Amino acid sequence: RSYSITVRVLALFSVSRSGQEMRHDFQEHQCVCEGHSCVSGDRCWGQQCFSSLTMSNGIQVHQKGCFKEYEQSRLNCKTPPSSGQVVECCQGHLCNLDVVVELRSVNLNLFSCLLLSQFCIAEVISPFSCRNVRWRRCAIQCDHPDPCHRRPHRCDLLDHSCTSGSGSGLPFFVQRTVARQITLNECVGKGRYGEVWRGQWQGESVAVKIFSSRDEKSWFRETEIYNTVLLRHENILGFIASDMTSRNSSTQLWLITHFHELGSLYDYLQQSTLDAAACLRMALSVASGLAHLHVEIFGTQGKPAIAHRDLKSKNILVKRNGQCCIADLGLAVMHFQDTNELDVGNNPKVGTKRYMAPEVLDDTIQMDCFESYKRVDIWAFGLVLWEIARRTVSNGIVEDYKPPFHDLVPNDPSFEDMRKVVCVDQQRPNIPNRWFSDPTLTAVAKLMKECWYQNPSARLTTLRIKKTLTKIDNSLEKIKADS
């Protein structure tokens, strides 16, 4: 008999220092590539080479390869032996050719047994409902019956063709209990889901989103989405780990991500104004993140198309470089074109009423069509763009921050409030007259209106939005150069 449980992937993260988001553009090196993850020959190119050793069913499994990005190597090259894997890294042409990794004073068989026991116990006491859940993450086997009758798993924990979730062909790094290594410093946000804390992990600041027990399905869904291969993108919040931990005699659900000290776009816009360049930088970064979610990447190391379903300024974070990244994927929907499978998850929650598209409010959305969910995201993007534009200064004038439809509905609008305004009266956020004396805001206003068509199929796609914003940005640069 077998009992399958999900294992959360320890992803990779970048950090901010000295008020600047550090970018490390190292020279790429050719590395030796050996093992199941080498799908394109015995050589690969990356910023660091690695050699690793794990234990699989009592057999030592050696692998060699390359880290494509500095952030990937930064965390994984620090992997301690207690994690169940030994990793050695180097820089230079074929520098890992003669590197031989050996086990020293680490009984990986014992570690694996303890790890399996820990996860089996955690799963037995877990309150998750197993029905209707799509399990796509890597799994390990325990000697217990499977009461959930889950679909077959794509790979086993100790099958090293399974990747880290970054889509870079790295060997699977055994998930360790990250929560035990984190010190919580201060609460930086609260919401219906729970709290967000700034924590310290391995000397760096991280964000710890602690879900309330009643919102466990959002926690589970975010964990599932963040572990999607090739999801990592500079405009999507960087995922580190997901953990279930016990603190103060109660079970806590943790989602650990990169920390961005400037907070959400909602908070930032209330305190700060923008110039035209900053406006476009923010808008283009949100559009880029959304476009990466929406696109399906084909191949063995591909990713499904993903729709967010709850895009709003509170679910977008501001980075030190002025760009944004999209967060809060607890309501996301996945689509696999090859099988036409639509995975809507097992979360009964709906999106934020203020940002709901007309077809959601009047219940005419085609729930079995993935394109419908993407068009809902486009509607919400148009509202976020409106929020950004209001805080953009032109001719010395700027509006105070207000949420969309602030003048038409109460502070906490009901479903019926929004349906009347958006569907019956077909109202849209007001475009201030002063925008039309500024070429950038005029173009941005035209763009947002094309996201607000009552007919969902008439709305722009994310790729068209990206191209339009890039064109507006280029025009702004030309104006600056001419002046």
UniProtKB/TrEMBL annotation:
<keyword id="KW-0723">Serine/threonine-protein kinase</keyword>
<keyword id="KW-0479">Metal-binding</keyword>
<dbReference type="GO" id="GO:0007507">
    <property type="term" value="P:heart development"/>
</dbReference>
<keyword id="KW-0675">Receptor</keyword>
<keyword id="KW-0547">Nucleotide-binding</keyword>
<dbReference type="InterPro" id="IPR045860">
    <property type="entry name" value="Snake_toxin-like_sf"/>
</dbReference>
<keyword id="KW-0418">Kinase</keyword>
<dbReference type="InterPro" id="IPR001245">
    <property type="entry name" value="Ser-Thr/Tyr_kinase_cat_dom"/>
</dbReference>
<feature type="domain" description="GS">
    <location>
        <begin position="152"/>
        <end position="181"/>
    </location>
</feature>
<comment type="similarity">
    <text>Belongs to the protein kinase superfamily. TKL Ser/Thr protein kinase family. TGFB receptor subfamily.</text>
</comment>
<keyword id="KW-0472">Membrane</keyword>
<keyword id="KW-1133">Transmembrane helix</keyword>
<keyword id="KW-0325">Glycoprotein</keyword>
<dbReference type="Pfam" id="PF08515">
    <property type="entry name" value="TGF_beta_GS"/>
</dbReference>
<dbReference type="GO" id="GO:0070724">
    <property type="term" value="C:BMP receptor complex"/>
</dbReference>
<dbReference type="InterPro" id="IPR017441">
    <property type="entry name" value="Protein_kinase_ATP_BS"/>
</dbReference>
<keyword id="KW-0732">Signal</keyword>
<keyword id="KW-0067">ATP-binding</keyword>
<dbReference type="InterPro" id="IPR003605">
    <property type="entry name" value="GS_dom"/>
</dbReference>
<feature type="domain" description="Protein kinase">
    <location>
        <begin position="182"/>
        <end position="476"/>
    </location>
</feature>
<dbReference type="GO" id="GO:0007179">
    <property type="term" value="P:transforming growth factor beta receptor signaling pathway"/>
</dbReference>
<feature type="binding site">
    <location>
        <position position="209"/>
    </location>
    <ligand>
        <name>ATP</name>
    </ligand>
</feature>
<protein>
    <recommendedName>
        <fullName>Activin receptor type-1</fullName>
        <ecNumber>2.7.11.30</ecNumber>
    </recommendedName>
</protein>
<keyword id="KW-0464">Manganese</keyword>
<keyword id="KW-0460">Magnesium</keyword>
<keyword id="KW-0812">Transmembrane</keyword>
<dbReference type="InterPro" id="IPR000472">
    <property type="entry name" value="Activin_recp"/>
</dbReference>
<dbReference type="Pfam" id="PF01064">
    <property type="entry name" value="Activin_recp"/>
</dbReference>
<dbReference type="InterPro" id="IPR000333">
    <property type="entry name" value="TGFB_receptor"/>
</dbReference>
<dbReference type="Pfam" id="PF07714">
    <property type="entry name" value="PK_Tyr_Ser-Thr"/>
</dbReference>
<dbReference type="GO" id="GO:0046872">
    <property type="term" value="F:metal ion binding"/>
</dbReference>
<dbReference type="GO" id="GO:0004675">
    <property type="term" value="F:transmembrane receptor protein serine/threonine kinase activity"/>
</dbReference>
<dbReference type="InterPro" id="IPR008271">
    <property type="entry name" value="Ser/Thr_kinase_AS"/>
</dbReference>
<dbReference type="InterPro" id="IPR000719">
    <property type="entry name" value="Prot_kinase_dom"/>
</dbReference>
<keyword id="KW-0808">Transferase</keyword>
<dbReference type="InterPro" id="IPR011009">
    <property type="entry name" value="Kinase-like_dom_sf"/>
</dbReference>
<dbReference type="GO" id="GO:0005524">
    <property type="term" value="F:ATP binding"/>
</dbReference>
